[in-house]
Amino acid sequence: MLLSKTTSRVSSDFQAKTFVDQVVDALLKRALQGIILPGERLYEADLSRDLGISRAPIREALRILEGQGVIESIPYRGTRLAPLSSERIRHINLVRFELERLALGAALSSVKRSMIHDLEGNVKAMSMAADHDERLTLAKLDTEFHGIICSHGGNPVIGAMWAILRPQLLIVFGVSMFAKDPSDLVKEHVSLLTAIGDKSAEKAIEALRGHILRDNMEIDFEVLVQQRRAEANRLSDAQHMPNSPSHLVSRRPRGRPRRVQSPVE
Fold first, then answer.
1. Higher-pLDDT residue of 183, 216
2. Nearest CA-CA partner of 261 in 47, 49, 55
């Protein structure tokens, strides 16, 4: 009987953890799609209503995302999606270059054909997504491309550090796709794949350096986010614009319309 109770408790805990992971994925997807923008305040009550779940798993998901650097908690001001700036992008790029440089050097030293095969499949999927202007898919594939490099380095520490960095990159790549030409993104990765395929570690790492350290640096993320925020607010206002005199009749509001918040200062 004791065994049955223990088994039931463990199963329940596992299911709860899986559910929290799903909430983390749902929040990341919203950030990737630009529904939640960098610098935007996050309210547990609003997220609970929008996702149709209680606040407890949302609170736990926010705690996990804070540990990954995706969100920030500011004392007495609340929680927000971490803002993006040129300096932050530069810091992220420096870290990811070092991770990928180590992984790529190790992978090429042992001639890992499986890595080349996985990267080729990724770039092929990128090309198809670009043809259909599937920018959300491209952002995911861009992240996956660099994750493949890290996964073939044979170093679990690199893999663990990449797992922490990955959610931040998803958001960076997702927002950047509002300003990028999909075909240019594919060309960049085809060139990088060609350099890696030559199996010259020195040339491949130099190509990787150029690709990563200049990646997204030409984009003014702060201006881009402001433009996306203004566009989202225009759409929100248009959706709630009265269409007839009937709007003069007093009605009890059914939840406040979602309006993208300005960054927390």
1. 183
2. 47
3-state secondary structure of 215: coil
Provide the 10 A C-beta neighbour count for residue 34. 22
Radius of gyration for the alpha carbons in the chain, expressed in angstroms and rounded? 22
Same domain, 196 and 92: yes
Residue 33 belongs to domain with CATH number: 1.10.10.10
> Is residue 264 pLDDT above 90, yes or no?
no
Alpha-carbon distances of 202 from 139, 207, 211, 252, rounded to whole Å: 27, 9, 14, 67
What's the Cα-to-Cα distance from 255 to each of 36, 205, 261, rounded to whole Å? Answer: 18, 53, 16
Q: Are 139 and 101 in contact (CB under 8 A)?
A: no
In the DSSP assignment, the letter for residue 169 is H
Q: Are strands 78-81 and 41-42 parallel, antiparallel or unpaired?
A: antiparallel
CA distance linking residue 50 with residue 169, whole number of Å: 24
DSSP 46-83: HHHHHHTS-HHHHHHHHHHHHHTTSEEEETTTEEEEPP
Last residue of some domain: 81, 116, 132? 81
In the chain, what percentage of residues exceed pLDDT 90?
55
Average the pLDDT over 56-67 and give the result.
93
And the tokens for 44?
């547990």
Weakest mean pLDDT among 87-96, 102-111, 136-145, 176-185: 102-111
Distance (Å) of CA 49 to CA 60, 106, 120, 257: 16, 47, 42, 12
